[in-house]
Design brief:
Elements: E1 3-6, H1 13-28, E2 33-37, H2 43-52, E3 58-59, E4 67-71, E5 87-93, E6 107-110, H3 116-127, H4 133-146, H5 157-170, H6 175-187, H7 194-198, E7 202-207, E8 210-219, H8 229-242, E9 247-254, E10 259-266, H9 271-276, E11 284-288, H10 293-296, H11 298-304
Parallel strand pairs: 1-2, 1-4, 2-3, 4-5, 5-6, 8-9
Antiparallel strand pairs: 7-8, 9-10, 10-11
Helix pairs in contact: 1-3, 1-4, 2-4, 2-6, 3-4, 4-5, 4-6
């Protein structure tokens, strides 16, 4: 019986590349594994897969009766809907410990680093398995994406060392140039439906009984949103109502200015002031230096909603 290796709903590059890289490793050590995904791939991920010659993993939403290895999260809201009917055999993640539970012992690789693929590189080293050049390439790109080319406060020495090692294996001389190519793909928003933009990198969280949706769009220049910001805000309000959410947030992150404009629709008008020390005006607030949803947005919000 093969184990399915799968990331979170609305998968990002870390989820997709991590599923591919971890499934390959498992197969090399005699544990049959198949990479899978819970949703459509983003333009950035499509760019990465095409660059290194990969097809997207199998699209599979139901895992009842299957063995599953979870990548890049440990949250019930981000897992397959029927995960309670599956057997979780392992988790590799770099986020806070979520609310997934298991009935049997499992393998856990959880580290406070910038990307799951950094941990997967450690797993390859632990098992003494050589990383193929194309897999090294997608792992490198995932780390560059999650760490915003090392600018994110989540970035650690381990992430940097792993990118340097993976770039050498992949034969990439200028990995930062590859990173900028990826972010240029991310910055192309023209002609994309507003809902697709909001959902491009989106996660739901259960924050002390409050359902909170948080999306993030990382671009090289925030001016790409000037003509559609009002439409984005209208869609946040619609998604809040549709999903019966307490709050909807969208981070418009400028990787060059190293900060984010936060768009928010919430039942609590004082939420940003309590969480970040800055009141929102007409549902908008600039958060200087904020690049990481995981480290600079979610923990503060969770505390404010306690």
């Amino acid at each position: 019986m093969s184990v399915y290796v799968v990331g979170h709903k609305i998968p990002d590059s870390d989820s997709i590349c991590g599923a591919i890289a971890l499934a390959y490793l498992k197969n090399q050590i005699g544990e049959a594994a198949i990479p899978a995904r819970l949703g459509e791939i983003s333009p950035e991920t499509a760019f990465i897969l095409e660059k290194f010659g990969f097809e997207a993993p199998e699209f599979k939403t139901s895992y009842a009766g299957e063995e599953v290895y979870i990548v890049d999260h440990s949250e019930l809201t981000q897992a397959p809907d029927d995960i309670g009917e599956a057997t979780i055999v392992g988790i590799v993640d770099h986020h806070k410990l979520g609310d997934l539970t298991t009935s049997t012992p499992l393998e856990c690789w959880i580290r406070p680093v910038g990307c799951s693929n950094t941990i997967i590189k450690m797993m390859y080293d632990f098992h003494g398995v050589e990383i193929p050049a194309n897999i090294a390439g997608i792992m490198m790109c995932a780390i560059l994406s999650d760490t915003v080319i090392f600018k994110s406060p989540t970035c650690t020495t381990a992430d940097i060392k792993c990118v340097e090692a993976l770039a050498e294996i992949a034969g990439i001389e200028d990995f930062k140039a590859v990173g900028m190519e990826m972010f240029k793909v991310k910055s192309a928003v023209e002609g994309t439906p507003v809902r697709d933009l909001v959902m491009r990198d989106f996660k739901d969280f259960n924050m002390n009984g409050h359902k909170v949706g948080i999306g993030q769009l990382e671009v090289i220049d925030l001016s790409v949103f000037d003509d559609i910001k009002a439409e984005l805000e209208a869609d946040l309000a619609a998604m809040k109502a549709e999903g019966e959410r307490h709050s909807m947030l969208l981070l418009l992150t400028d990787i060059m200015k190293e900060g984010s404009e936060l768009l928010i629709v919430s039942d609590d008008a004082s939420l940003t002031e309590r969480a970040y020390g800055k009141a929102s005006e007409n549902g908008r607030v600039w958060l200087d230096g904020v690049l990481s949803r995981k480290k600079q947005v979610v923990p503060q919000l969770q505390e404010a909603l306690a």
